[in-house]
C-alpha cells in the first residue's frame, strides 16, 4: 500500500489496521468482540424494553438506567461492527468525514455515559439522605432537564473537535493503527501543529470525566455516612444493596479507563497492541456487563426479566 508523504497533500481516506502485530490472530480476537457485542445488544435492549413497558418500574433510577443502556448500545454499535469488518474482511478503509463523525459519536457518547452515572449518583444521594423529600425533589421535569443537560454538555464539548480536526492537513501516513478513529490518533497523522488538539483533549478530560469522578466519589462518601447512621439494620442493608449495583457499574466504567491511562502514560515499554487491546476492553466490557449487574443486583429488574423469559417459554 503506497502512502503519500508530500507537503500539501491531504489524505481523505484512511486505513484502520485493527490491532497491529496481531494480524494473524484477528479471527480469534474477533470471537470475544462478537460475543460481547451480542450480549451488550441483547442485554441493554431487554433492559430498555422492560423499563419502558413495565409500569411497576416508575422510579427515576430506572429512567437513568434506560439512558445508560441506550448510550451503551450506541457506543458498542459505533465501534464493534467496524472492528469485526476489519478482523473478518480486512475492510479497514474509512473516509476522513466518516472518521471524524466516528470520533464525535464515540467521545460524546462516552462523556454522556459519565454524566448519566453522575446523575444516578445524585439520585441515590437524594433517595438515601433525603428519603421523605425524594418524590418532591426528583420529578419527571428534573429528570428531563438532567437528560438534556447531559446531551448538551457532551455535544457542546465535542463539536469543537470537529473543527480542530477539519483544519488539519493530513499529509503523513494514512495508516491508523487502531480498530476505530480516535481524536489524538487521527491528529497525529497531520503535519500541522496539534498542540491545540492535545490541550483541548486534556481540558475535556479534566472538565468531564475527572470532575464527574470527584463529584461521584463525594456523593458516595455522603451516602456511606448516611447509611451507617441508619438505626435499623434492615434499612441499612437495603440502602447498601440499592447502591451496590451502581457502585459496581461506576468501578466498571471508570476503572479500566484509569488503568489504560496509567499504562499509556507510564508503560512506554509495553507493546502498542496491548494499548489498543486495553482501549477496546474499556469500550467492550461495560456495555456487556452493565445489564447483567443490574439484572442480578436489582430485584425488580431481575423479577421482570424472569417474567419475560418464562412468558416467552410458555
From TrEMBL:
Superkingdom, taxonomy of origin: Eukaryota
Keywords, ordered alphabetically: Cell membrane, G-protein coupled receptor, Membrane, Olfaction, Receptor, Sensory transduction, Transducer, Transmembrane, Transmembrane helix
Membrane topology: Multi-pass membrane protein
Transmembrane portions of the chain: 27-50, 62-88, 100-122, 142-165, 198-227, 239-262, 274-296
Gene3D superfamilies in the record: Rhodopsin 7-helix transmembrane proteins
GO CC, alphabetical: plasma membrane
Name of the protein in its database record: Olfactory receptor
Species for this entry: Hipposideros armiger (Great Himalayan leaf-nosed bat)
Lineage: Eukaryota, Metazoa, Chordata, Craniata, Vertebrata
Amino acid at each position: 500500500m503506497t502512502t503519500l508523504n508530500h507537503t500539501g497533500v491531504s489524505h481523505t481516506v484512511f486505513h484502520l489496521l485493527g490491532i497491529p502485530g496481531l494480524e494473524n490472530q484477528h479471527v480469534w480476537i474477533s470471537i470475544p468482540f462478537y460475543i460481547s457485542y451480542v450480549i451488550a445488544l441483547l442485554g441493554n435492549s431487554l433492559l430498555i424494553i422492560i423499563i419502558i413497558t413495565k409500569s411497576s418500574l416508575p422510579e427515576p433510577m430506572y429512567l437513568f438506567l434506560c439512558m445508560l443502556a441506550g448510550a451503551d448500545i450506541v457506543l458498542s454499535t459505533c465501534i464493534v461492527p467496524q472492528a469485526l469488518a476489519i478482523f473478518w474482511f480486512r475492510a479497514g478503509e474509512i473516509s476522513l468525514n466518516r472518521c471524524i463523525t466516528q470520533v464525535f459519536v464515540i467521545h460524546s457518547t462516552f462523556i454522556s455515559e459519565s454524566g448519566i452515572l453522575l446523575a444516578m449518583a445524585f439520585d441515590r444521594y437524594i433517595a438515601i439522605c433525603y428519603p421523605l423529600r425524594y418524590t418532591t425533589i426528583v420529578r419527571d421535569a428534573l429528570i428531563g432537564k438532567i437528560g438534556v443537560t447531559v446531551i448538551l454538555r457532551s455535544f457542546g464539548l465535542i463539536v469543537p473537535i470537529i473543527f480542530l480536526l477539519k483544519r488539519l492537513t493530513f499529509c503523513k501516513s494514512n495508516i491508523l493503527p487502531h480498530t476505530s478513529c480516535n481524536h489524538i490518533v487521527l491528529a497525529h497523522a497531520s503535519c500541522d501543529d496539534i498542540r491545540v488538539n492535545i490541550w483541548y483533549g486534556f481540558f475535556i478530560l479534566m472538565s468531564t470525566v475527572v470532575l464527574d469522578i470527584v463529584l461521584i466519589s463525594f456523593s458516595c462518601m455522603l451516602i456511606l455516612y448516611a447509611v451507617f447512621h441508619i438505626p435499623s439494620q434492615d434499612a441499612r442493608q437495603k440502602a447498601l444493596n440499592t447502591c451496590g449495583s451502581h457502585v459496581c457499574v461506576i468501578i466498571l466504567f471508570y476503572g479500566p479507563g484509569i488503568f489504560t491511562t496509567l499504562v499509556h502514560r507510564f508503560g512506554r515499554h509495553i507493546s502498542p497492541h496491548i494499548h489498543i487491546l486495553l482501549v477496546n476492553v474499556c469500550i467492550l466490557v461495560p456495555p456487556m456487563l452493565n445489564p447483567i449487574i443490574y439484572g442480578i443486583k436489582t430485584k425488580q429488574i431481575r423479577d421482570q426479566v424472569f417474567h419475560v423469559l418464562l412468558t416467552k417459554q410458555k
